[in-house]
Design brief:
four-stranded antiparallel sheet; single chain; mainly beta; about 10% helix; Acetoacetate decarboxylase-like; twelve-stranded mixed sheet
């Protein structure tokens, strides 16, 4: 007998790929490098009516040690400080690379994040924390930070990048032939527990790749290296702006 689609929130039947949010991520390790980048390049990567808020850019490299549904994997995200239509500060994601097919699908479907599959690593080598991002066999980013030299907190990121906790994305969906919906969707981590945080000297190198052109956000100056371990909840998103259907 055919199954009832009303009983499903994701496919395939019997082994769904995308969870119903919220889900909890435990022991999430994050290396964040805040750096300055040319404003013209950054401005060309955000959709109207968002407005660029500064010349800073943030690269996050995550090691999800225990994510409900998705297991253990690594992820990366570039974020640009923006102002929403109501002038609320937030960050917009132009590029994301990660290893989990479920997290790729969930990020795109739930939030509109432009996620692509790749290889991401975050691990220590002696006294150095190293985050790498690879796509198509090319290492497109390498971030490093001295290992746990000065205790800090996530407040240092929020001080530099107001709205760092509020992520906004452009969700585009092909509804049917000739109809495409476009909307801005926000997402904010919930129930965040910060277990530890460290700040220190950091570096970032970018390499060109036409399939993941994060090199457009060139590094002119590294401002902050931040290494945290947190627990957090991924909640549903909120639509804040709808474009006319095309």
């Amino acid at each position: 007998m055919p199954f009832d689609p009303a009983e499903l929130a994701s496919t395939p039947f019997g082994a769904p790929l995308v969870p119903v949010l919220p889900i909890r991520l435990r022991r999430t390790e994050i290396l964040s490098v805040v750096y300055r980048t040319p404003r013209d390049a950054a401005n060309g990567l955000i959709p109207r009516p968002l407005r660029l808020a500064s010349d800073l850019c943030v690269l996050h490299v995550y090691h999800m040690h225990d994510a409900e549904w998705f297991g253990e994997y690594c992820e990366s995200a570039w974020q640009l400080p923006v102002l929403l239509p109501d002038d609320t500060p937030a960050v917009y994601s132009p590029f994301l690379v990660l290893e989990s097919d479920g997290a790729v699908a969930a990020g795109r479907e739930a939030y509109g994040q432009p996620k692509k599959a790749g290889r991401v690593r975050l691990a220590a080598d002696g006294d150095l924390l190293i985050g790498t991002v690879r796509r198509n066999g090319i290492q497109i980013a390498m971030a490093t930070m001295c290992w746990k030299q000065r205790a800090g907190s996530g407040d240092e990121l929020r001080r530099l990048v107001p709205g760092a906790d509020l992520n906004v994305n452009l969700r585009i969906r092909q509804e049917e032939e000739g109809i495409v919906s476009r909307e801005l969707v926000t997402r904010q981590f919930a129930d965040v527990v910060e277990h530890e945080a460290w700040v220190g000297t950091a570096t970032l190198e970018l390499r060109p790749n036409a399939q993941l052109p994060a090199h457009l956000l060139a590094v002119t100056e590294v401002v902050l290296g931040l290494h945290r371990t947190v627990d957090l909840t991924l909640p549903p998103g909120h639509v804040i702006h709808r474009y006319e259907a095309a």
